Amino acid sequence: MSEPNAPAPFYFEPSRQSPIAILVILAKLIRALIGQFWFVLVLLLLGRRPGSNNQFLLWMMLAGAVFSIGRSLVIYFRTHFYIQDGEFILEKGGFTRSRLSVALDKIQTITFQQTFVHRIFNVVSVEMDTSGSKGSEISINALDRKKADELREYLLAWKKENAAPESGDASIPLEKAPETTLLRLNFGDLLRIGLSQNHLRSGGILLGLAFSFSENLEPILGKSTFDYLTEELGLSLNVFWSFALWIALFFLIVSVFATLILTAVRFYGLRFVRTGDGFRLEAGLLTRREQAAYLPKIQYLRWTANPLQRLLGLFNLRLYQAAGHELSTKQTLQVPGCYQPQVDAVREAYFPGAGELTWSWYRPHRLYFDQRLFFIGLLPLIGLVVKTAIDFSWPWLAICLLWPPVTAWWQWQLFRRKRYGLSPEGLWNHSGFFNSVQTLLLWRNVQAVSVERSLIEARHQLVDLTFYTASGSVHIENIAQETGYKLRDYVLAKVEGWGDNGQSPSNRTREAELRLSSVTEPSREQMDDGSWTEPSR
Hints:
Blueprint: H1 21-46, H2 55-77, E1 80-84, E2 87-93, E3 97-103, E4 107-114, H3 116-121, E5 123-130, E6 138-144, H4 145-161, E7 180-184, H5 187-195, H6 199-221, H7 225-232, H8 237-267, E8 271-275, E9 278-283, E10 288-294, E11 298-305, H9 307-312, E12 315-321, E13 333-338, H10 340-350, E14 360-362, H11 367-390, H12 394-417, E15 419-422, E16 426-431, E17 436-442, E18 448-452, H13 455-459, E19 462-469, E20 472-480, H14 481-495, H15 505-520, H16 524-528
Helix pairs in contact: 1-2, 5-8, 6-8, 11-12, 14-15
């Protein structure tokens, strides 16, 4: 408790940003002016002749500098923020003034950022987002680090104490424990993470840019790039393909180095911390970003690993927080380079006892495999056969012969590894072939459930379920219709608290258990059909 005569916290009275905000605002204004009038500067610079008078250019630059400095000062002195009557109020403006009020219970995430200038003066920029905003709804350019920490602690404490009963936040116990560093990345860790990324995807993007560039050259060359290389430069077809392979190899090598550099810039000095009320992630070389995840706002977890990462025992962990559709990606905490202990620690905090629960595991119906084999195997094969018949060549014939067994094996492995785990409290999905993907969802975070089925699924009495949360959706495909509808009713009833129908709590509990048992215990026919399995964890 605070002292009786202690001064009120700074955020209860109109407060200004740190004076360093003047520099930050000035830098933003200069970048904006350059972005709008760069072509004018380029024309003036290109149009200069030796000995010409540069006074006009100098006066224009001086006027722009004076305007930027003046506007930065006006914005700084006219910007105030404070908390009043359960609202965060931000008054700002340059030559026009605006007042933004956001209810404290609508604030979803609080993010700190530090550029090089911020770190020199030990200040941070503060961004607050609401679930319906398209961008950072509240932005404070520079605030003293100690004050920023005080403000964030107050907002998180207020949200915990004033959580609405229907939101479920108040029913989630948060242990007050000292901060624990779960993961800290050094240079060797960044190197392993960078080398284990999906370089084929980066190389494909670079190749796509190269092909786009070659298409843009065609109007200049007067013919296709391929024709120009073969006719004008005299390259034979074999030489052209050899050249193309070397180019592809070059782009792959470049993509590896590019991924290493981007990984180092984005995740330099990464520190992943378990706090008493959630998690905090700090990372970044040029701009250091600090994201906090309040545990009741984490909607679901997902951790993935490609073949090389599985060999190294690494996982990419993502914590999906409650946010608007436009902000769902921005507010996702991505923690690369995790090992199994870190994944287990986050999973236990989000879903206590998940590893010890008795899960009922399902596979999708065989139709899942048949449909994918049709669209990925059969339809492309028809096009390959037509291509080979029109323009016969041994390589195309080899592709036609190899395509059916390769795609069948690929889709069968994908089908075998896709599993859905059901428990009284949540869903645990396993999927992926090249990339192993696991998703963990608590039923209490589900906001809506949709049941869909195609004509083919209706014929086989199958449905697809989609569970919508405040940070995205999780899917179940091709499960028995009866199971799907029972699961939907159970989840909605659990989320809505079983309604107010006059039943006693004990009767409602027994009804919940009966419904759940009818969902999670498969029938003998399902087990014989291969739709149930117990995977190794």
